[in-house]
Amino acid sequence: MSLISVSPFYEGFGVVFHINAENDMMIASVVIGSPQPVSFSFAGVDLAGVVPIYAIALFTPTIINELGYSAANAQLLSVPPFAGGFFTVLVGIYSDKYQIRGPIVAGGVFISLIGYIVLYTQKAPGIG
């Protein structure tokens, strides 16, 4: 068992560890790095990205259900955004692999144009 003392920068945090195994070394590294501003920045960025995803996943079926659809239909109608996200990732991988980003973007714009035309020509809101 050895005693590890850290640089003077960390002394204010009282970081001194007895390290006797691999796992203890990992715990010591986490505790040493925790008070760093960069750690909090990464945590904030991660939180800013994860909270909206989970909010959409959790509340979309509830909002659709409140629009008058049954619970089963609300669950089914909340799937397309996630399927679209999966498709977007696959298209991005394909466009990077073959280096054809321009035609891929033009295709996405064309599909969006068709969607807006369909939306504009609807007489009543809703499905069907």
UniProtKB/TrEMBL annotation:
Keywords: Membrane, Transmembrane, Transmembrane helix, Transport. GO terms for cellular component: membrane. Its main location: membrane. It is a multi-pass membrane protein. The chain crosses the membrane at residues 40-64, 76-94, 100-119. InterPro entries: MFS_trans_sf. It is found in: Membrane. One of its GO terms (molecular function) is transmembrane transporter activity. Signal peptide: none annotated. SUPFAM superfamilies: MFS general substrate transporter. PANTHER family: PERMEASE-RELATED (PTHR43791), TRANSPORTER, PUTATIVE (AFU_ORTHOLOGUE AFUA_6G11320)-RELATED (PTHR43791:SF22). This is Major facilitator superfamily (MFS) profile domain-containing protein. It comes from Piloderma croceum (strain F 1598).
